[in-house]
Structure formats: structure tokens, C-alpha cells
Amino acid sequence: MTTATTATTATAPPTATPTTAETGSTDDPGARTHADVLEAEAVHIIREVAGEFERPVILFSGGKDSVVLLHLALKAFAPAPVPFALLHVDTGHNFPEVLAYRDRVVAAHGLRLHVASVQDYLDRGVLKERADGTRNPLQTLPLTDRIRSEGFDAVFGGARRDEEKARAKERVFSLRDRFSQWDPRRQRPELWQLYNGRHAPGEHVRVFPLSDWTELDVWEYVAREGIELPEIYFAHEREVFRRSGMWLPVGDWGGPEEGERVEKRRVRYRTVGDMSCTGAVDSEAVTLDQVIAEISASRLSERGATRADDKLSEASMEDRKREGYF
Amino acid sequence: MTRTTELPTGGLLRFATAGSVDDGKSTLVGRLLHDSKSVLADQLEAVERASAGRGQEAPDLALLTDGLRAEREQGITIDVAYRYFATPRRRFILADTPGHVQYTRNMVTGASTADLTVILVDARHGVVEQTRRHAAIAALLRVPQVVLAVNKMDLVGYREPVFATIVAEFTAYAAELGIPAVTAIPISALAGDNVVEPSAVMDWYGGSTVLEHLETVPVGQGPAHRRARLPVQYVIRPRTAAHPDYRGYAGQVAAGAFRVGEPVTVLPSGRTTRISAIDLLGRRVAVAGAGQSVTVLLEDDIDVSRGDLIVPTADAPPTTQEIEATVCHVADEALTVGHRVLLKHGTRTVKAIVEDIPSRLTLDDLTLHPHSGRLVANDIGRVRIRTAEPLPVDSYADSRRTGSFILIDPGDGTTLTAGMVGASFADPGPADGAADPAEDAGWDF
């Protein structure tokens, strides 16, 4: 059994070594688990991008989906290194544990990390802080600027179609125009496994290898592969306060306000994002098995439980995606 | 979502739904998700809130799936949406495809990877033009299983003769298309009859509910017996101190199985060697089967690159620069004779030219228009294509993976056409090659 505290090998795929497996293997090519199927398809997508694009990058937040994506990329090219850099959009309100985790992973695998900083845009006066304090919508400009300035032509994201209704409509290869905009009415039909990566100069493609994974698939894969995650995914004591029906963390991002009462609670996170809009859930789960058991029993979806910004309107995700957000 | 920490034993079923506008397809999907307890509390609350906001009395289950602004505004489904749910028996990926005529290409998208398709019919209207179109697409794409769901049985008094008449008409049409077997189920998506729970009012029906059928229908276990094919995606060369000489050919096995020691040929060059090792994402294995993403190492240091196809020497396909195929045109811009395009087959993209469009099919009555010369959006027809380089293509009937291709506009990258190599019911064949010229008058574009 893998626990949060004992899984110390940061997303290290087992390295292929010439062993004795060739002798009398009973491998049945037909016998595969659901996780095997999802893994093989994600790797196929990742390798297609490596084969067809000049300058791909992995959008990496330190959240479980992008962590799994990186793990798959490590496996896809082993024993060679991952031929992509990472790009992190730092809202300035990130969880310190997640930033520490990010830097550990980058160092462990000799990866290159680009950081696009929302704080930097605020300091320069290009972006303005919102009245509600959330910085999630502010990520779009630093992200799309960096994609343009670095000339990234394929941008991997860990988004899953089960997260949200607008995401359920998106292709695995999602073409974005030179303003990074998504037009749901002009999507390319995606036929068989023949992904079309052609694009005009200035356009790029967002690629979602985990499209067909569910939240539970991700957790089961994390457990199976022994992948380390940031500690905030497991139950811990934290000072939180209630806002819009969610437990938000106390921090220098601006919470709590007057009249919001701080409590110390035992919580964990189901998603990783900007502190101003990522809610914690009450939890006793300190191991992966316990997390999986809790999620299996939950009657709330991942985003419904923990994302304030998705509640802004019925189409808030679609609107942000149209502008260039993931 | 129905959460189960134990892996269901029945594996994964990918299926697609198809139906005309107002046949109740979104309601069926909503009912399937709702009654199988695949909808979480907050998602249902959102639907209840939205339904109440429009003054509807009951939650509109179609709102569970129509996710785009325009879809909610118009109350129709524009684009394919993918849904995920599980029961203790099996996991499902559902491609929920639109019914509108102008979105036929989206049905092709959904059907291209489906193991099964559910075609919905309104019991009051029976088999209509769209039904025939959906059946024809399922046949063209060779979706292995077809389910006919006769919906709105509540509106025809749950009468068996209504159901029997529709089934007889559909089955006859399906047989003409070469669809081997059809499973027909009388349902009411709105009332919940025979979707997840057996109907209390149709005791004349002794078959499975829709969900039971989806849970138990056999899924093609990767055609392991078929000809082995490995399109090379990427060459892995670490050139590190630990792996100075490693040279592996990465790809997903498209069909069949490969074994260590097996003599293989690399196409299109035709060079032969043997497989010296297979890495299955970090594990050395002796055999790799269809669907697995692997890295193959070869005994000899021959020239292999992305786009090549590794095949067993004993079972190598011929290569050709002349491809005849049935295609579905999916772009707004027409495809015409003389069109210069890119053709992507497996991992190889080559220049190509459309040499001939010998016929165009009318799906409504399966008539062929000879020498149409062009195909417009959503048309299905035959094409002859000449490629700049030789390609090892299989017949689509033998392999959905290596018998399929897409045509791409070299200018802006638009996906133009979905192609299926070899004969199909849309193939005029030598006998009907000279179709009645009187039909020409019926051209309607």
C-alpha cells in the first residue's frame, strides 16, 4: 500500500532493464486493465505531439492531473528524457507546499521550467486585481503571452472531459487561434486515433491526453504507480474560513474578510489552484486508499466541491476557455 | 458518478448515440446517467436550478449533457460530448452525438471509435430519413454492434405492433447495409421504461434494458489474431551515459501482436530484421498486443523513422500509391477532383491528389450518383487518390486503424475528409458501375 508519507520517488517511472521477462512470459496481449488502456492511449497522444510539433510544453500546476501527465511523459520517452519543458502559471497565491513540490520535481528530472507570473503583470499595471480577490481569471493573459513569446506550438494540459460540461465538448487536439481563443463551433472532427496537429503560424494546439480519464481513474493510477503528490491532497490541520459554502485557506491573498470566522479544521484538497478560489473538504484521509474511499462515497463532483469560480455562471468555464484559458 | 474502487470485470465499452432532433436522445442519455446513479448531487442541483429558472416543472435531464451556451439557447446538441460512467459490471465512454443533418460529420467522429451505437427512433414516426442516415454511417464505419432504441413508447400506448413494425423495417434496411445483427429495445426515456429499470407496462417485451445490454454485450477483445501492425511514432535515442546505444521505435500496436525474435519488415523501405526486445512503458515483455503503447528494439541498425510501419515479414501488406476508398467529407469547403491535399495514415502524412470522385451516395435511399466530381460537407462518396509516396494500407474491413485515413488541407490544416480504404456498400462495384444516367436529374446540390 502506498501512503502519502512513504511515496518519495517523485514520478519516477521504472526504467526498462534487460531482464529475464522474455523467458516463458505468459503476457496475454488481450488482458489489460482499464488503467492500462487509458495509459496506452495517453502515451500515444503524447508521442504524436513529440513527433509532429516543433515546440511543445507541458502546462504544470503541481495538481494531480498535471503530475500524472508528467509521469506519463516520463514513461513515454524512457529511458530518454522528456523532450518538453514545463510551464507554470503562478498566480502569486499558490500553496507554498505546491511550489516546493514543483521545484522538487523539476530538479529530480532535470526539466526546464517556465514561470508566467500574474503578480508580475499586476506589479507592471497590465492587469488589475479583481474586487473579489480571485486571480483565476487573471491567468489567461500571462499564459497566452508566454505561449506567444516562447513560440510554443503545442501546449499539454491535464484537463479531463468529466470535469465540466464545456470540457466534455472539447477535442483531444484543440486548435487555438493566434489569440489563443477556442471556438466550440469550429472544432475539427477527431476521427479514429488520427490526430491532426496542422496549424497556421501563430496558432497553437492545446492537447489533453487525459481527456478520457475520470477523477477516480487519476487517483487509482496515482496509487498504482506510486506517484508522489503535494501534501495538501491529504488530510491535515489548516486554518480556514467559510465563504460561498466553501472552506477557503487563511493566507496573505486576502482572506478572511471582516465577519468571516477562522476555524482550525482537518481538511484536504481535491484540486490545486489559486488559494482565493480553491476550497478544501473536511477529511480524515491520509493515505491514497483512504482518499479513494472518500471520493468513491462523495456525492459532490470535484469542481462542485472545491471551485468557487465555476459557480460564477452556468457557462463560466466555456467563457474562460473561449478567451484562452484551459 | 457511480464510484467503484474495484475494477469492473467487463472492461470498457465505448458507445455512441445517434438520433434525430427531438427523438429524445439527450433525455435518454440523461436518464441513463441519472438512473445509473452517475450524476452527482451538485450536478443535479445545477440542472434543477436551471430547469426551475425556465419555469419547467421537472428537471430537464437533457441539460445534463448540453454544455454549450448555444446548445442551451437553442435546445439542440451541436457537438459531440463525451460522458463517463461506470456500473459494477463495466466502465463506459459515451460519445453523445448530435442529430442535426448538418452535424453528420460529428456522428462520424463519434462512430469512428465506438464499439456500439444506439440509434434512437421516435415510435410515432418510425424509421425516417435520419434513421437511415445513422444506420448507413454505422455500417460504413463498421461499428461492431447496433442497438435500435424505439423511444416514446408511452406516446403510442406501449403497443407491441408499433414496435414490431419499426423493428422489421429497420432490420431489413440494416441487412441491406451489411449490418450483421440489430438489438431492438422498446423504451420511454422520459418515463424511464427499459432504460435502466425494466418497464412495468410492456410485459410483452422479454429482452434486456438498454443498460443491461450495454453491460453485457461482448466487446471486441482487440483483434489479436489479425495482422500485426506497428506505426512508428517516434524514435527514442537517449544518447546518455547509461544508455549510449539504445535505439527504440515507439508506437501503439494498431493490430495483432508482436513477439521478441519475430522477423519483421519495415515499410515502405522493405528492409527486414528481427525484434530484439519490447519495452512496455518501462517493463520488458515478450509479446505486445493491439492497443499497447510500446517501444520496439530491432536486431539490425537499419533506417527507421516516424511514419514507417513495422509488420511481420510473413504478413506484410503491399504498398501502393493508388488508394480507393469510401469517404465522408467533413469540411465546409467542397472536395473536388484535382484537389491537392495531405493524407494522414497511421503516423505518416504524405502529399496526395484527388484523382477521381467516381460516385456520391444518397443515404436516404442508398442510390449512387456516378461521377459527381465533388463532395460537399456531410457527403459520402467514393474517391480515388494518388499519393506522392507509397503507403502500406489495409482494407478498412480488416483494420479500422490501418485501413483509415484523413485528408487535410495543406493551406490551413483543416480536416477535410474521413477515409475508409477498400470496398463498402457505397462502392458501385464493376456491376453497377454504369448507373442509370436518368438519376443525374436528381442531383440536389
UniProtKB/TrEMBL annotation, chain A:
Q: Give me any GO biological process, just one.
A: sulfate assimilation
Q: Which residue ranges does the record assign to the Phosphoadenosine phosphosulphate reductase domain?
A: 56-279
Task: Provide ranges: composition bias, Low complexity.
Answer: 1-21
The answer, when asked if Transferase is one of the entry's keywords, is yes
Q: Which UniProt keywords apply?
A: ATP-binding, Nucleotide-binding, Nucleotidyltransferase, Transferase
User: EC number(s) of the enzyme?
Assistant: 2.7.7.4
The source's domain of life comes to Bacteria
Q: Name one GO molecular function term.
A: ATP binding
Q: Where is this region: Disordered?
A: 1-32, 301-326
Pfam families named among the record's database cross-references = PAPS_reduct (PF01507)
Q: Which SUPFAM superfamilies match?
A: Adenine nucleotide alpha hydrolases-like
InterPro entries reported in the protein's UniProt record: PAPS_reduct_dom (IPR002500), Rossmann-like_a/b/a_fold (IPR014729), SO4_adenylTrfase_ssu (IPR011784), Sulfate_adenylyltrnsfr_sub2 (IPR050128)
The entry's family comment says: Belongs to the PAPS reductase family. CysD subfamily.
Q: Which NCBIfam families match?
A: CysD (TIGR02039), PRK05253.1 (NF003587), PRK12563.1 (NF009214)
Task: Provide the protein name.
Answer: Sulfate adenylyltransferase subunit 2
Which organism does this sequence originate in? Streptomyces showdoensis
From TrEMBL, chain B:
Q: Which GO biological process categories is it annotated with?
A: sulfur compound metabolic process
EC number(s) per entry? 2.7.7.4
Give the UniProt keywords, A-Z: ATP-binding, GTP-binding, Nucleotide-binding, Nucleotidyltransferase, Transferase
**Entries under InterPro entries matching the protein:** CysN_GTP-bd (IPR041757), CysN_II (IPR044138), CysN_NoDQ_III (IPR044139), G_TR_CS (IPR031157), GTP-eEF1A_C (IPR054696), P-loop_NTPase (IPR027417), SO4_adenylTrfase_lsu (IPR011779), T_Tr_GTP-bd_dom (IPR000795)
Root EC class? transferase
Indicate whether Glycosyltransferase appears among the record's keywords. no
Q: Which GO terms describe its molecular function?
A: ATP binding; GTP binding; GTPase activity; sulfate adenylyltransferase (ATP) activity
What range(s) does the Tr-type G domain occupy?
A: 10-224
- Which top-rank group of organisms is this from? Bacteria
Stored Pfam families:
GTP-eEF1A_C (PF22594), GTP_EFTU (PF00009)
User: Could you tell me which NCBIfam families the record lists for this protein?
Assistant: CysN (TIGR02034)
Name it: sulfate adenylyltransferase
Q: Which organism is it from?
A: Streptomyces showdoensis
